[in-house]
Structures are given as C-alpha cells and as structure tokens.
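Q: Second attempt. The first request was missing the SMILES, so the protein and pyridoxal-5'-phosphate are both included now.
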Amino acid sequence: MSETLENLDKTYVLNTYARNYVNFKSGSNAILKDDKQKEYIDFTSGIGVVSVGHGNKQVANAIYKQVSNITHTSNLYAIEPQAKLAKKIQELSGYDVATFFSNSGAEANEGAIKIARKYGETKFDNKRYKVITLAHSFHGRTITTVKATGQEKMHTPNFSPYPDGFSFNKHIEDIYNSIDEETVAVMIELVQGEGGVQPFEKSEIQKLAKFLKEKDLLLIIDEVQTGVYRTGEFLASNLYDIQPDIITLAKGLGGGVPIGAVVTTHKDIFTPGDHGSTFGGNYLSSTAALEVLSILEKHQDEGKIKKTIDYFSDKLTLLFEKYPNIFTKEVGLGLMRGLRVKDEATLSAIINNGFDEAVLVLKAGKNTLRFLPPLTITQDEIDEGFKRLDNAISKI
Ligand SMILES: *Cc1c(COP(=O)(O)O)cnc(C)c1O
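A: Got both inputs this time. The predicted holo structure:
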C-alpha cells in the first residue's frame, strides 16, 4: 500500500473519528485549499475554532514573534501575555472576574466543576457537590465532563464507573424541583451547540439565574462554543444579560491554538495547589488569544460582526425558504446557526453533497445542519458558500 494520507491515518492514528479523506494544504479566511488545488468554503471554522479565519497573518505574526523568543516557561513563573489576556477577558466580559487557563473546553469545564465543589465544601454546613445539567447538552469528553453531558448515549458502560454528583433534567423548568440539599451548581449552555443549535429563552435563563443567586448556588455557563463573539456579543451571557458565577471558554479563543479558560467571580475559592496545568495559558496560547481578541474587538467596535451576522442570516433565510420540503425550522443565534432538516438521511446527503460541491458544513444533534463560519467571513465567501450549498441541495 502506498503511503497515502488515508493509509497513514488508518494505520497509525487511533480510530475515534469518522473522517473525510481530504488533504487541506492551505487556508485563507473562510477558504481551504486541498492538495489538488480544490478550494472549499468553510462554514465550520474547525467547529467554531478558527474565529478570525484560516491563515490569519496578524495572528501568525504575533505567534511567530512570541515563539521565536519564548514559547513556554511553566506556570511556576508569571507569564505576561497570560496576565494581559486575563485582564482583556475581564474588560470584554464586563464582569468582576479572574481567569484560570487550561488547554481545552473539557478541561475548562473540569476546572469549573472543581471550583463549584470546593465552594460547596467550604461555604455550607453540609457538603454540597451535585451539579445539574440539561438534556442535549455537551460539556466534553473526559470521564467527568462526559458524565456531566446530558445525553444517556454518552454514558456507555464501556467507561464506567463515572463520578457521582451529576444528573440532567429535560427542561429548565424541571431544574427547580431537582435541586436538593447536596446541589451546588447548575451548568448549562445558552445555545446548545452539539445538541442542535438550540437557544434558550432569555426570560427563562434570567429567572433561573435569579433563583440560584438567592439560594447561593452557582450558575456555570459553558460558553466553550457560544463565547468569543460567536453569538454577536463577547459572551452569550452578555446577550442574555445575566451574571454567571463561572463561565468557561475555549474553541474560538485561540483562533486554532489550543486554549481554554475558566472565568469566575469567585476569585477566592482556589488557593495554590488546588488546580494547575502544565501548558495552560503559556506564552504561545495566550499570545495567540490576545491577538485574536484584539482583532475581534476591533471588528465588533466597527460594527462588522453585526453586519456579517445580518448578511449571513439573510442568505440562510433565503435557503430555508427555497426548500420548504427539506428544512423545517431556522435555529441559532449570531454566527452559530442551524437549519432543522426533515430527517437524518437528508441531512447526511446535504453534508456529503456539500463536500462534493466544496462547501463545508456540520451536523448537530440528530437532524440539524449547523453553520459556524469564521467571524471574519466576507460577503463574497458567504455568497459563494450558499451558492454551492444550494447546488448541493438541488441534487437531492
Ligand atoms: C466543544 C465543546 C466542549 C468540549 O471542548 P473540547 O475543547 O473539545 O474539550 C465543551 N462544551 C461545549 C459547549 C462545546 O461546544
């Protein structure tokens, strides 16, 4: 067998993903080019990661400058870009918060759960440790965050036993009756990403936030996907006008460089020794994130993100209305959007035909066609992507 990418991957990489065998060689904003010079429009941005586009020269230059000097020193010494990044996150969030840096979303959620558990241990007479989540949520792939994820199919006996203290409710309304004397926190996404691009009602979220505050229980908002301007504000929590106790970030923060963040108003819970990470917030990742935030803050201030959201929304609605026999509902917020498809087979056909037409789109939940374009996507790229998607759908 020749050493094709497919052979290499299948022989040496563990088999955890149902992969497409394409070999991307270069990228520019929302365009990816493969080894045969075929150009794809990327409506996925690497699952909401490449927030400022592929091949972003400003981020690349900042990274290059940093890593030609220092890449890593460990968290035993203060790290200037990490401290500056934490300050920037505080300023952009508008909350009185401090941040711990990890390397991924799951790890950020683990950190959030640790803060909640220590809070539950130290702030009450009886130990409170239980965390309530919601059906169709997604919180990560570690043993703990898989258990926190509100999808029974993820709790396979293959990986049991799971840690105690996690349960999930079907609806937000059910949470109130599930809280017992051992409950310490509720952890939710404001727009469920993997679960089907499903936003919750603002009033429902505000009511829950108020209730938890009155009970001194914690509200953890998993903004790993919704954060960093994805919904149009720096945080979806800003859009929902709530004050969470803990917010987690990851995907879009580093523009492709792995970084996660646990952002909390409870600045005194962790003390040295409680938590740590070898790589978390090192020179490389925090420099990348600082540059990403500086680009996106400027875009936001100039009204470009809102313009892009409006333009993308119009195109999405046109497609939705053109195919009433295929799409049943438009869902999502900002540049985190979805179209519900009548059935799973049709959704697969759209994604596969889209791939052939060179437009990349995602699946969410059972039957949602999901769009997470770079926040810097241009109108031309949006036009071209929807033209190709239309072609893909017309061939079904
Ligand atoms: C992707 C995602 C995670 C997991 O992040 P990883 O970086 O893959 O560990 C957690 N929560 C939400 C809401 C996500 O979308």
